[in-house]
Amino acid sequence: MTQLLEELKPAQPNIVTVFLPYYHSNKRNVLPLALNLYQRAYLEGERQIIGSDNISFVATWSVNKSILPTDLTRCRIQFDRNPEYSYEVTIANFEFINHLIEAILNFQRDGICDFSKSFYYKLLQVKQSNK
User: Is there a contact between 59 and 41 (Cβ–Cβ < 8 Å)?
Assistant: First the structure.
């Protein structure tokens, strides 16, 4: 699972250029890797659970032939290899790729492949509090 993230190569510059306006600062540095990950349409990882064992997940998503920031991506994630724990979300490519950027940054920082809390809020359709 982590081998996939370690082996990522940057996406082609012409694809990266289309997405650059949607990201700032350190996210721009990771964007070429996230676009390559997006094109693979697959990610395995572990959801970190505080005070408990991590839960493995497999995420898959649709990849459009034309990769445009405003196109939609349908992402399906299954926890613990159990079909009963499957969830799906459809979001704009630029937003989904932002979640992939955050997953790569999490991996680089913590060594664990996991999506951000904001992705799970979106996936589970939970409203975030502004606290």
Answer: no
> How many residues are given for the chain?
131
Q: What are phi and psi of 2, to 5 degrees?
A: -75, -25
Note the pLDDT of residue 1: 47
Considering just the CA atoms, what is the radius of gyration of the chain in Å? 14
Q: With cut-offs at 50, 70 and 90, classify the pLDDT of residue 7.
A: confident
What three-state secondary structure class fits 37? helix
Predicted TM-score (pTM) of the model is 0.90
Confidence bin at 127 (pLDDT 50/70/90): low
* Measured distance CA(124)–CA(16) in Å, rounded: 29
Of 120, 68, 123, residue with least CA distance to 97:
68
Q: Return the percent helix, strand and coil in the chain, to nearest 5.
A: 45, 20, 35
CA–CA dist 72, 60 (Å, integer): 14
Termini Cα distance of the chain: 34
Helix axes 26-40, 93-110, angle to 10 degrees: 110
